[in-house]
């Protein structure tokens, strides 16, 4: 009979897939308009970086194949998102986007994997060093949900922090934190524990400000702001 962690991990995979697919509507708008307009590519580039490194971590760490499967799927999805940015980005932004993609999605992962493999001969040490890198990157990328929470407090509006995204951040963090506890994996536990806490705070803010009178951003910028929050999956993401 399968271990409880397996069933928890499967649930985590389903939730993470839903989060990875949450920006589909935004990219459908980009394709229809044939322009990324003012949307920011960095959240998707960072999510691709995190997903690719977590995929490698799941491969080299015994018993963590559920981590590699969901993040492998996430990497494929994020490659599509980033490719659409490269296709439809305005000319003055396209070169900068290409440079950032080359640095964060090509050079950095190759350098990180090569460094861990050359520095450590023991597979356990390689796994732990990659886990440290992945967890550290995810914690740094929590600037995104912090920014979303600041926007809600400043504008007194939850329009820029979609409920379902906050809910899945909360749920994703909780499920993967439980999985990490069962697997005794501190590298998964720490970032997902932080994600659970941030998701909880976002839901509390949603309850406080959902009926508040909005203030702040203009109507012209509100659609961009709301849609960009969907791109902050790196935010929590997908820390599995």
TrEMBL record:
Locations listed in the record: Cell membrane; Endomembrane system
Cross-referenced InterPro entries: SWEET (IPR047664), SWEET_rpt (IPR004316)
Membrane topology type: Multi-pass membrane protein
Keywords, comma-separated and alphabetical: Membrane, Repeat, Sugar transport, Transmembrane, Transmembrane helix, Transport
Family: Belongs to the SWEET sugar transporter family.
Its biological purpose: Mediates both low-affinity uptake and efflux of sugar across the membrane.
Protein name: Bidirectional sugar transporter SWEET
Organism: Brassica rapa subsp. trilocularis
């Amino acid at each position: 009979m399968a271990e409880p962690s397996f069933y928890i991990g499967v649930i985590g995979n389903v939730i993470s897939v839903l989060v990875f697919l949450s920006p589909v509507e935004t990219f459908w708008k980009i394709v229809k308009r044939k322009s990324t307009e003012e949307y920011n590519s960095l959240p998707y580039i960072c999510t691709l970086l995190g997903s690719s490194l977590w995929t490698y971590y799941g491969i080299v760490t015994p018993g963590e194949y559920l981590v590699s499967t969901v993040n492998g799927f996430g990497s494929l999805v994020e490659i599509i998102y980033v490719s659409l940015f490269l296709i439809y980005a305005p000319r003055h932004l396209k070169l900068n986007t290409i440079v950032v993609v080359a640095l964060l999605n090509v050079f950095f992962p190759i350098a990180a994997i090569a460094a861990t493999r050359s520095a450590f001969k023991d597979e356990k040490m390689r796994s732990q060093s990659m886990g440290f890198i992945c967890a550290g990157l995810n914690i740094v990328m929590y600037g995104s949900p912090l920014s979303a929470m600041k926007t809600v407090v400043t504008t007194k509006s939850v329009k820029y922090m979609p409920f379902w995204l906050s809910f899945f951040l909360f749920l994703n963090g909780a499920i993967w934190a439980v999985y990490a506890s069962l697997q005794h994996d501190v590298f998964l536990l720490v970032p997902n524990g932080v994600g659970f806490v941030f998701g909880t705070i976002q839901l509390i803010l949603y309850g406080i400000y959902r009926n508040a009178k909005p203030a702040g951003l203009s109507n012209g910028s509100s659609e961009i702001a709301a849609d960009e929050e969907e791109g902050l999956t790196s935010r929590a993401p997908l820390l599995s």
